[in-house]
Design a protein that fits this description.
The complex is a heterodimer. Chain A has 15 helices and 19 strands. Chain A is α/β, with parallel strands linked by helices. In chain A, strands 1, 2, 6, 7, 8, 9 and 16 form a 7-stranded mixed β-sheet that branches. Chain A has a 5-stranded mixed β-sheet with strand order 17-15-10-18-19. By secondary structure, chain B is of the alpha+beta class. Chain B is built from 11 helices and 9 strands. In chain B, the strands form 3 sheets. A 5-stranded mixed β-sheet of chain B has the order 2-1-7-3-4. Chain B has a two-stranded antiparallel ribbon with strand order 5-6. In chain B, strands 8-9 form a two-stranded antiparallel sheet. The chains are: A alpha/beta, B alpha+beta. At the A-B interface, helix 3, helix 4 and helix 9 of A face helix 1 and helix 5 of B.
Chain lengths: 558, 264
């Protein structure tokens, strides 16, 4: 058994920031991650991180943009925290070594981003996530924080109404171990890979979110799934909003800048939900290109500017689509990108389960509501990662470490679960997974309706049955990736079910949740958060009020 | 159809196994390996994460060239009949003959193999740790942040683009000879911190002194193989040479400073 005061599950930005904070506050903290921290998906974030740094911008303006962007579903007290603390957190990252792009006079460079009334997105070329993550990892190395690399956490341990640690599998030898912690912080990122088309890393299967769900913690607003408007045709690798922020145009097959029809004011820089729907509409109505895409044209920016500010996506386009954006437009289509929903928690990261915290994409505070603005997710990781680390550190000062018995029982039952998965005859994880992805893509995507969502709920119910028969054929003990996939598949199926069921119940269109059979936002009935609880019969849905402080809901127009 | 010839290893047992994969347009070598893992042999193991050449997980030896599997297209790799491995920086035979429609996949050289294509990266991370790869920032954040000119930023950026995939280490002849050699990634990183105006002078000097030896800057053969294989256009050799030049400059400065002090 391994014991620490605090263990952070996940080594991306939120996790490392939480770890650093808890360490600086004198607690014994460790990070556990299924990959080396710098392989986490935070590394792929491109466009930037929002902060009101200059005097003609303000945190209030940032908050208003965020709340409007969220289609008024965000909790405004939490948004205030996000925007108020943004400058301090960003400048701190700069001080620790993040190599931001610079203005002529040496300040952090900022670019316009979708849905924002001011150019407040701080960037490091189009490799902002990479620069932030490497910086935080460097500072974590400097602090000598213990990192358990290549461990998959398989279940949380709950004892007397408290989360007291977890069971994890060491990938290099497939051995299970019990971890004891006074506080556990989930920072496990999103679940993009339950969709066929996603910008997310292959490892983003949402298993961390399902850990909390299993432990009885509600999942909040899971039906709100962000589809990024511009993902590269074929691989669906992200093509940053920064490409449009720097002046890129979107064209349909008649060479029309079609955003004129959908968002006359902000054009290509309307919020992501709107641009994604516009592109999908163009494609659905026959104005896209064969293969279902539109063109993102940045050729007019010139090679110098492209190389300087968008060098990463230039290389990605060349490597993965054989297209040089200096010379020709990039073929793009919408793809799943981000989860606005997640483990329900407050602005200190505390979940309803004592001893369990959440931060980053896996958490739902909620600062993004029904649609996240670009540049606010990196910000969320450093603001709320820090706060979760801080509050977990406070909590463990006044908490005793729990006994070992529950851990030993959990360990034994988890060993049984794993051994039950092994064997020759059964379903292949890949077959069930691909069916899940296909139904999520088809019926729980950019546009949704009752018939499709009902089909999704029913199909996923059947897939869960089928999922019980998944068996792992490979008996390898060292790095058995088939086993990892089989374990995580269960979580994917559960999240798919929660998303589809929440979307079916929500009979309105708000932000990224767009129902073709309920076209309008319905504040009277649906200005509220969804909470999904796990039951043996599937998710049970409850609702809670949205916190509104200074911005009264209005119709969104861009 | 493409045939993958994969070097496999389980304990002491080493063998080559071929897998026939139905290739599709845009398929990467990583996709082809997934095809094998999901349909033909669930036991085949290799690391992966982002599939977009930013996380650095999937470095391996493809047709004797160290590179990222996700960034290597099957369509081009299967037609590499004669790979000029010297130019690319591979260690084995100078020219590799690969059969048409076949791709040879092996683990990254200069590392111990754990199983199949998974190598022991701990050694690489330990080497990196030797150079203390961090900015020794003070507790106080300057109001409004540090200033830095765009020119300095761009000079450093060449080195911060490193994703620690270790393809350079797999291509490096010095790393192949000497296990203690810090290697291109760590030495390039050392120069990145030296260039950074936010780093304390004393820490810059301490770091430079720590690499001023045969396991560091002077172990390099200056054959630019790391530069040739880097998927992110990082130039470790240039960084190593710049540090070699910096050492005498610092010595002169030190002497000058001492002289000045004695006059005071």
């Amino acid at each position: 058994m391994i014991t620490h005061d605090i263990i952070i599950i996940g080594g991306g930005l939120a996790g490392l920031r939480a770890a650093l904070e808890a360490h600086n506050r004198g607690t014994d903290v460790a990070v556990i991650s299924k990959v080396h921290p710098i392989r986490s998906h935070s590394v792929a974030a491109q466009g930037g991180v929002n902060a009101s740094l200059v005097h003609d911008d303000s945190w209030e303006a940032h908050a208003l943009d965020t709340v409007r962007g969220s289609d008024y579903l965000a909790d405004q007290d939490a948004v205030e925290v996000l925007c108020r603390e943004a400058p301090e957190r960003v400048l701190e990252m700069e001080h620790w070594g993040t190599l931001f792009s610079r203005t002529r006079d040496g300040h952090i460079a900022q670019r316009p981003f979708g849905g924002a009334g001011f150019p407040r997105t701080c960037y490091a070329g189009d490799r902002t996530g990479h620069n932030l993550l490497h910086t935080l990892h460097e500072q974590v190395l400097r602090a000598r924080i213990k990192i358990y690399r290549e461990w998959l956490v398989t279940r949380l341990v709950v004892d007397g109404g408290r989360c007291t640690g977890f069971i994890a599998m060491h990938t290099p030898d497939s051995k299970l171990e019990a971890f004891r912690a006074k506080a556990t912080v989930l920072a496990t990122g999103g679940y993009g890979r339950i969709y066929q088309r996603s910008t997310n890393a292959i490892i983003n299967r949402g298993y961390g979110i399902s850990l909390a769900y299993h432990a009885g913690v509600p999942l909040q607003d899971m039906e709100f799934v962000q589809f990024h408007p511009t993902t590269l045709l074929g691989t669906n690798i992200l093509i940053t909003e920064g490409a449009r922020g720097e002046g890129g145009y979107l064209y349909n097959n008649r060479h029309e800048r079609f955003m004129e029809k959908y968002a006359t004011g902000m054009m290509e820089l309307a919020p992501r939900d709107i641009v994604a729907r516009s592109i999908q509409t163009e494609v659905d109505e026959g104005r896209g290109f064969d293969g279902g895409y539109v063109q993102l044209d940045i050729t007019h920016l010139g090679e110098k500017k492209i190389e300087e500010r968008l060098g990463g996506i230039r290389q990605i386009s060349i490597d993965f689509a054989g297209i040089d954006p200096v010379k020709e437009p990039i073929p793009v289509q919408p793809g799943q990108h981000y989860s606005m929903g997640g483990v329900s928690c407050d602005a200190n990261g505390a979940t309803p389960l004592e001893g369990l915290y959440a931060a980053g994409e896996c958490a739902c505070i909620s600062v993004h509501g029904a649609n996240r603005l670009g540049g606010n997710s990196l910000l969320e990781t450093i603001v709320f990662g820090k706060r979760a680390g801080e509050h977990a550190a406070g909590y463990v000062q006044e908490t005793d470490v729990q006994g070992e018995n529950t851990h030993l029982d959990s360990l034994a039952s988890e060993e049984q679960n794993i051994s039950d998965l092994m064997g020759g005859d059964g379903e292949s994880f890949a077959v069930v997974r691909d069916e899940l992805r296909s139904v999520m893509q088809q019926d729980v995507g950019v546009f949704r309706n009752q018939a499709g969502l009902q089909n999704a709920v029913e199909t996923i119910r059947e897939l869960r049955e089928k999922g019980r028969n998944v068996r792992v054929k490979s008996g390898a003990t060292l790095f058995n990736f088939e086993l990892l996939n089989a374990i995580e598949l269960k979580g994917m199926l559960e999240l798919g079910q929660v998303i589809a069921k929440g979307a079916l119940a929500r009979e309105e269109s708000r932000g990224a949740h767009y129902r073709t059979d309920f076209l309008e936002r319905d504040d009277e009935h649906w200005l509220r958060h969804t909470l999904a609880y796990q039951t043996p019969e599937g998710p049970r849905l409850e609702y809670k009020e949205v916190t509104i402080t200074q911005f009264q809901p209005k119709r969104r127009e861009y | 159809m493409v045939r993958l010839k994969v070097r496999r290893q389980d304990g002491d047992r080493v063998w080559h196994e071929t897998f026939d994969v139905k290739d599709t347009p845009g398929m990467s070598v990583l996709d082809a390996l997934f095809y094998v893992q999901e349909r033909l042999d669930g036991g085949l193991c290799f690391r992966y994460s982002c599939r977009g050449a930013v996380c650095g997980s999937c470095a391996m030896l493809i047709n004797k060239v160290p590179r990222l599997a996700c960034r290597t297209q099957v369509s081009s790799a299967k037609n590499e009949m004669n790979v000029d491995a010297v130019k690319w920086g591979a260690l084995a035979r100078p020219v590799v003959k690969v059969a048409k429609d076949e791709i040879l996949i092996e683990p990254l050289p200069n590392f111990n193999v754990i199983r199949d294509l998974v190598v022991d990266m701990e050694h690489f991370y330990d080497l990196l740790d030797h150079i203390k790869p961090w900015i020794s920032a003070g507790d106080e954040v300057p109001k409004g942040g540090n200033l830095m000119s765009p020119e300095v930023e761009q000079q450093i950026e060449v080195y911060t683009n490193c994703i620690l995939c270790a393809t350079c280490h797999g291509a490096c002849p010095a790393a192949g000879r000497d296990e203690m050699y810090l290697g291109p990634a760590a030495l390039a990183k050392a120069w990145r911190f030296y260039l950074d105006p936010r780093e304390q002078e004393k820490d810059k000097h301490a770091r430079l002194e720590a690499v001023d030896n045969q396991s560091g800057l002077w172990g390099c053969d200056v054959v630019f193989k790391c530069v040739a294989v880097c998927p992110k256009k990082v130039t470790p050799t240039q960084g190593i040479l710049a540090q070699r030049r910096q050492i005498p400059k610092n010595r002169i400065k030190k002497v000058f400073k001492r002289g000045k002090n004695s006059e005071d």
